[in-house]
Specification:
The complex is a heterodimer of chains A (377) and B (251). Chain A has 15 helices and four strands. Chain A is α/β, with parallel strands linked by helices and 377 residues long. Chain A has a four-stranded mixed β-sheet with strand order 2-1-3-4, sandwiched between helices. In chain B, 47% of the residues are buried. Chain B has helices spanning 47-54, 76-82, 98-108, 116-126, 142-154, 172-187, 199-202, 222-229, 238-248, and strands at residues 7-18, 21-32, 36-40, 62-67, 70-71, 83-86, 160-164, 191-195, 207-212, 215-220. Chain B has a single domain (7-248), classed as 3-Layer(aba) Sandwich (Rossmann fold), CATH 3.40.50.300. A six-stranded mixed β-sheet of chain B has the order 6-7-8-3-9-10, with helices on both faces. Chain B is an alpha/beta fold. Chain B contains nine helices and ten strands. Classes of the chains: A alpha/beta (377), B alpha/beta (251).
């Protein structure tokens, strides 16, 4: 490795970037818009479920139930309907996603110890959402029953008794269960892939398309020197993107890192290496900028988004697909980042992810050097 | 047979196969220091494959080859340091200025930075590009770009200059200037190895090798080749000799 040669390649790449600002703009606009778009629009949290209520009973007890419902942060009473048909209309228009119908005789049945159903209608067109809403409804009903039982016992002169089993749930790492705290680390992984791999996927293909590759092969330049020189400018672009994302995550969404900043930089640099190596390999193999770009979208952007535990939980995937997630670099980087962002983990707990990323980098780079050597570099 | 001191290129039984296809079939020739050596052949004759082997870009399947004293089978890096190569596309970066293109080559040839200014000025003088050195290369006329590409290939004072169809797509005046320049270079002791399709250009070469279907079919000075190939036609020229030779294998 001759630093003078690397420097020459690096300078040239920098100039290409400056002369063709389109790719530079791409390098910064895409991350920015992704952060804003995903950060504001993609919320996986379900709260304030819009609820419409019909009360056929009109008793103190039915009103008490409704009050409790409204007081919960999980439900927001949108309207009081007069009958069940109206509830249907609300659900049809999507102006409410949950309908609760309290039948006539509700209070009477409960007081005579017969038990009364209440009807819950739910918009199931978004299964993810309705699953969570169903959980809330179940928890709410159980809680309300508990309250009724206790007051019944108390009224009958029995001492206040404690429920036999009580689950005391304490959420760790992301105490408020805010999905944003998980979205930001995942977004950084996707952004780095775009900035790192999609841009570098063009740089070797461009040499082939311009006919300059033939000259480069005749120059005393090794494959390693070419790859390193071409990577440097993009490494800094990607690293800048990490900083921008971390900063925006903190400023706009209040997502603050818990663990070491330097560990984050170390992990990000390693992941950037993998992204650059992947992009350059795609470039060497395709030799065409158009093909390389499409290949990069298919092999870097989409897997990082879909198969990395970011949007879709890996544990819910079919087992064949789960195997694929093991070769997606973002899976490991997201693990590192969420460990740093949410859990205050140290290198001793994360070294496995670091090791896998290092291995991926070495394999990708070695493969590329082999291919380029075969071509005559 | 080993290379003598005067042989700047020495090739013996050099062969290149791509799987079953024999691109270059055990060719043997030498080029002397300071010669303008023409390497002629039709498209697909094995011309480019030979140049790429001599420049250390691809490895021969068998045979020997020495370029500027370096073994092309084992010393590709040293070979690349002692040659300059200009392809027909000139291979410049069009979004870089001449100055930046030259600086790129200075770095890649690891020219010591103390010599950068002197080498830069030398190329800009030679290519008469001082005034346009900060303009984008794509804005320059074809002939100017050709001079720049040539200058870049000569930056590190190579022993041998390889020119692969250097004048295709260049107008006749530029082409004449180009050959004057090449003659000048050879006079300074740099060996010039050139391929071309234009037979009137090949007349500028001291010695010529013609290759067809991977085999050497003629070698010697242009006049020797003409009289050997067309002995019964006193007014035959190199063009006719070339066509005669190239059509032999096609039947």
């Amino acid at each position: 490795m001759n630093p003078r040669k690397i420097n020459a390649v690096m300078r040239k790449e920098f100039i290409h970037l400056i002369r063709d600002p389109r790719s530079l703009i791409l390098a910064f606009i895409i991350p920015l818009s992704l952060i804003l778009l995903f950060g504001y629009a993609l919320s996986l949290d379900v709260d304030n479920v819009e609820t419409v209520v019909v009360d056929y009973d009109h008793t103190a007890m039915s009103r008490d139930l409704i009050e409790h419902l409204d007081a919960s942060i999980y439900f927001q009473i949108k309207a009081y309907a007069r009958n069940a048909n109206e509830v249907g209309e609300y659900l049809d228009h999507g102006s409410a996603t949950l309908g609760i119908i309290i039948p006539p005789g509700f209070a009477r049945k409960i007081k005579s110890d017969k038990g009364s159903p209440i009807q819950v209608l739910m918009d199931g067109s978004d299964p993810n959402f309705s699953n969570m809403a169903r959980g809330y409804v179940n928890a709410f009903v159980a809680g309300y029953n508990n309250k009724l039982l206790l007051s019944f016992l108390n009224r009958n002169g029995l001492e206040r008794i404690n429920p036999p089993v009580e689950g005391r749930i304490r959420v760790w790492f992301n105490e408020d269960l805010e999905s944003r705290k998980f979205i930001i680390p995942g977004l950084i992984a996707v952004i780095i892939m775009i900035a790192g791999a999609m841009l570098t996927s063009l740089v070797i293909a461009r040499e082939y398309e311009n006919g300059t590759m033939e000259t480069i092969k005749s120059l005393p330049l090794s494959a390693l020197e070419l790859l390193v020189g071409k990577s440097v400018p993009y490494f800094f672009i990607a690293l800048t993107n990490v900083f921008i994302s971390v900063l925006l995550g903190q400023l706009l969404f209040g997502v603050v890192m818990k663990a070491s900043f330097w560990l984050m930089i170390f992990g990000s640099s390693l992941y950037i290496f993998v992204a650059l190596a992947l992009g350059l390999l795609i470039s060497t193999v395709t030799k065409s900028q158009l093909m390389a770009n499409q290949g990069a979208i298919l092999l870097t952007y989409l897997p990082s988004l879909m198969l990395s535990n970011f949007v879709f939980p890996i544990t819910n995937m079919p087992s064949v697909l789960q195997l694929f997630t093991y070769i997606v670099p973002a899976t490991y980087y997201i693990d590192i980042l969420s460990g740093i962002y949410l859990k205050d983990l140290t290198f001793t707990q994360l070294w496995g992810d670091f090791a896998v990323l290092s291995l991926m980098f070495i394999v990708l780079a070695a493969l590329n050097m082999r291919l380029l050597k075969k071509e005559g570099l | 047979m080993t290379p003598s001191n005067n042989d700047v290129i020495f090739v013996k039984d050099l062969e290149k196969r791509f799987n079953d296809f024999v691109a270059v079939n055990k060719i043997t020739f030498t080029v002397k220091k300071g010669e303008i050596f023409g390497f002629l052949g039709s498209n697909g004759s094995g011309k480019s494959t030979t140049i790429r082997m001599l420049c250390g870009i691809i490895t021969p399947t068998s045979g020997q080859g020495f370029v500027a004293g370096h073994n092309i089978l084992t010393q590709a890096e040293e070979v690349k340091h002692s040659i300059g190569y200009m392809s027909q596309k000139f291979s410049l970066y069009e979004d870089l200025t001449p100055f930046e293109n030259i600086r790129f080559y200075l770095g890649l040839y690891s020219v010591p930075s103390a010599q950068w200014k002197e080498r830069m000025d030398w190329v800009l003088d030679m290519a008469q590009l001082h005034e346009v050195k900060d303009r984008l290369t794509k804005e320059l006329p074809q002939g100017w770009r050709q001079r720049l590409a040539l200058g870049c290939a000569l930056l590190h004072k190579p022993d041998i200059l390889f020119l692969d169809e250097p004048t295709s797509g260049v107008d006749p005046i530029t082409r004449r200037h180009f050959w004057e320049f090449i003659t000048d270079i050879a006079g300074q002791g740099i060996t010039v190895f050139v391929t071309t399709h234009y037979m009137e250009e090949a007349l500028n070469c001291g010695r010529i090798v013609m290759i067809n279907l991977g085999n050497i079919v003629a070698q010697g000075s242009p006049s020797e080749i003409v009289s050997e190939i067309c002995p019964d036609k006193p007014d035959a020229d190199l063009n006719e000799a070339f066509i005669t030779l190239m059509s032999r294998g096609q039947q």
